[in-house]
UniProtKB/TrEMBL annotation:
Keywords of this entry: Oxidoreductase, Pyruvate
Gene: PorB
InterPro entries named in the record: 2-oxoacid:Fd_oxidoreductase, THDP-binding, TPP_enzyme_TPP-bd
Key word Oxidoreductase present: yes
Protein name listed in UniProt: Pyruvate:ferredoxin oxidoreductase and related 2-oxoacid:ferredoxin oxidoreductases, beta subunit
Keyword Oxidoreductase belongs to the record: yes
Amino acid sequence: MFPQPDMPQSWRAETKPHKFCPGCGHGIVLKCLGQAIDELGLQGRTVFGCDIGCSLLSWDFFNLDSVQTHHGRTTPVMTGIKRARPELICVAYMGDGGGYSIGLQHLISAAARDEKITVVLANNTLYAMTGGQLAPTTLPGQKTETTPYGRDPEATGRPLLGPEMVAAVAGEGAYVARGSIANVRQLKGFLKKALENQMAGAGFSFVEALSACPTNWRMNAKETWRFIEEEMQGYFRTGEIKVPGAVRKEAEDGGHNS
Ligand SMILES: Cc1ncc(C[n+]2csc(CCOP(=O)(O)OP(=O)(O)O)c2C)c(N)n1
Ligand code: SF4
């Protein structure tokens, strides 16, 4: 007998196998998200929004009310749903291109307004769906379709530290973390805490997941995991960046102006 696939209850089995490339990180992030939704018993009241980019392939992924939005606009769409129906749990899912370039103004404004939604962003260091162009997260020296000699920070800037940026503008009730598909237990834990933060109505919640795009990276499985664990995790540090109620160091020390 074939082993049965271990799918979260909140997944839609009839839309599997999914449409991502073999080895893609999106499926791993979405499995952690599905397990987090299952374990918190949220399937009946969660709305899922996905962006344009490879994340849109998740439009039929879950047994949840789902909406697919214009590129970079998933955050305001989910904000609107949450404001209209505060009892729902609203999750916006996007890539680093959608969240950190075309949708950056939406992400940062939602964080500054402390919208009570959860944003989950898969960082695979490039624009995957359109063929692997430079993204705000492309690492120094990394070759992409538009940086064939490797990213030069002098010419194109340094990789954006999204969670650190969000944490800097979000309110005291916000939850912000960065996980990795190389540590699914930790990633699922961060996603659960983000959802719990929304359940408590505490503030904005944001989880960046370091993800993989072996197709555009042009890497085999071994090279893919090495790139995530050494290159990506070396630059983008995983962990919790902002936890509700945490007393800021400068406040303890008497503040900037003392
Ligand atoms: C308004 C708008 N601008 C540009 C595009 C073209 N476009 C489609 S997907 C994409 C990049 C997606 O990259 P990312 O958000 O990082 O997601 P990934 O595909 O890597 O998961 C772009 C620029 C679009 N569809 N709509
Ligand atoms: S192109 Fe990359 S991000 Fe898109 S489905 Fe394939 S592996 Fe995943």
